[in-house]
Amino acid sequence: MSDGRHVRAVDQSAEWPKRYIGDGVYAAFDGFGVWLTAENGLAATDTIYLEPEVFEALQRFVKDAPRLVTKEERHG
Question: Which is deepest, 10, 31, 65, 66, by most CB within 10 Å?
Fold first, then answer.
């Protein structure tokens, strides 16, 4: 769980601005790892910090997971 200090520092970074990635989730890079925040429109409600090794493991998981179906495939 985050105490919020790092998230605010990332929010204010001009070099690596926080980016909305969908479903109420934002991602930001702090120069070392990746911050993921779930937000309710007013504030971050949940925060996850991915160190480089964990981010790499997530990338491997996505690569090995079944392929996601695109909108075009769903709508034929």
Answer: 10
| pTM exceeds 0.90 for this model | no
Q: How many domains does the chain have?
A: 1
Domain housing 14: 5-74
Long-range Cβ contact pairs of 40-44 (< 8 A, separation 24 or more): 44/4, 44/7
| First-to-final CA distance of the chain | 42
User: What is the dihedral sign for C-alpha 40, 41, 45, 51?
Assistant: positive
Question: Could you read off the pLDDT of 19-48 as tens digits, one per residue?
Answer: 999 999 999 999 999 999 999 988 889 999
